[in-house]
Amino acid sequence: IGGGAGHLLSGAVLLSTASQLKSTPHGTALQSHTYAGASSRALLNGTMLLDALESWRPSVQTIGSTIGSILSELEEASGGAVVCHGMGAKWGGLFTHEDPAARAIADADFRIRCAQKKVLPYFCPESGFMLTPRYDDDPDLLGEAVRDLAQCALETTREMGWPKASLVSKCD
Question: Among 69, 126, 133, 134, which residue's Cβ finds the most Cβ atoms within 10 Å?
Fold first, then answer.
């Protein structure tokens, strides 16, 4: 509630003058956020959010089971080349090749495939993805989109043809 857009907002505003930040005493941007200077608004919003949380539980459970089953199948079908994890409405997957350069190549391929399928997860810097759907998304449409995403990841791993010995397991 207090963090707002954080560095994303500041980065967008300061992008053209970011180099000037080095000359300030702090060496960086001062923190700014959504509720800066409005603690009563932050507290009111926080209270309303906490009051609403319980009503979201059934939707979050549906989202979790929808995404979880699809990503579990992806992990198994990929032979461990993608490791997936999550719960509720927050899920993700990572390509598991031990070499960061190989993961970067897979990530580039995966992004192209996602664009072609018109699915857009959060792409992670470490070569993977995250999903945080809205609580009121239609479970059937969400499932279709996650299946498309999983298919893109699976096609990528098959294209890479990584040997099992090059993968980092969950236990490594």
Answer: 133
Copy the structure tokens of residue 55: 């009503």
Run of H or E residues at 117: helix 100-117
**Residue 79 Cα distances to 41, 152, 162, angstroms:** 49, 15, 10
Do residues 69 and 40 touch, judged by C-beta distance below 8 A? no
Planar angle of CA 13, 17, 21, nearest 5 degrees: 100
Q: What is the CA radius of gyration of the chain?
A: 20
What is the biggest distance separating any 2 CA atoms in the chain, rounded to whole angstroms?
Answer: 56
Give the Cβ contact number of residue 103 at 10 Å: 21
- Global pTM reads 0.71
Tally of CB atoms within 10 A around 10:
19
Q: Per the structure block, which two tokens stand in for 130?
A: 């995250």
Q: How many CB atoms lie within 10 A of CB 145?
A: 21
User: Could you identify the residue written with the tokens 């959010």?
Assistant: 49
pLDDT tens-digit map of 31-86: 555 656 667 877 888 888 888 888 989 999 999 999 999 999 999 999 999 999 99
Residue 126: enclosing H or E segment and its boundaries? none
- Whose tokens are 């926080």? That residue is 46
- The reported pLDDT for the residue numbered 6 is 43
Token digits of residue 166: 């090059």
